[in-house]
Design goal:
Length: 180
Amino acid sequence: MNAKAITLGFIVAFCATATFAQPQPRRRPPEGLPGGPGRFGPGYQRLMTVLTEEQKASLREAMEQQRDKVREVEEKLREATRDLYTTGLGRKFDEQSVREKAGAVSKLEAEMTVLRFKAFSQMRPQLSTDQIAKLREGPGGGPGGDGGPIRGELPRKRSEKPRDENGLPVKEKPSETKPN
C-alpha cells in the first residue's frame, strides 16, 4: 500500500513537471522588470521596490550583458531537470544515477545564483545600508515580510510555566489522589 502511494506521488510530480516544462508562449515582461518576474530569481520584484531609478538602469544594463549566458544556463538547467525526473521515475531506480543527475542540477542552479549576484555586484551605486535594511525587513515590516519570523524559522513561544534556575520548566509533581 505504501509503495503504491509513493509511486503515485512520483507520477503526480512528474506530470506536474512535464506540464510546466512545456514551451510557453512568449509574454512581454512587465515594465521595469528586465526578463519578467522570476527571471532573476525570487525576491527580485521586492529588490526593485527599494532601488533608485539610477540603480534600476544600472542593474538592467548588467543583466543585459549576461543575457546570453543566463539563457544558456537556463536551457541546460531545464534539460538537466528533465533528465533527473526521467532517471528518478524510471522503472528501475538507480540511486547513483539519480545522485549524479541531482548534482548536475544543483551545479546549474548554483551557476544561476552566481550570475544573479554578479549582476547585482555590478549595479551602481551599490545598495545603501537603509536599502539593505528594508530588504531584510520585508514589505510587512518584519524579517519575514509579514511582520513575522524569517521564512523557514519557527516562531519561538515560551509558555508562562514556572522555570528553574536553568530556564527549564519545573517538573510538576503528580497529584496524589485519595482512594474512595
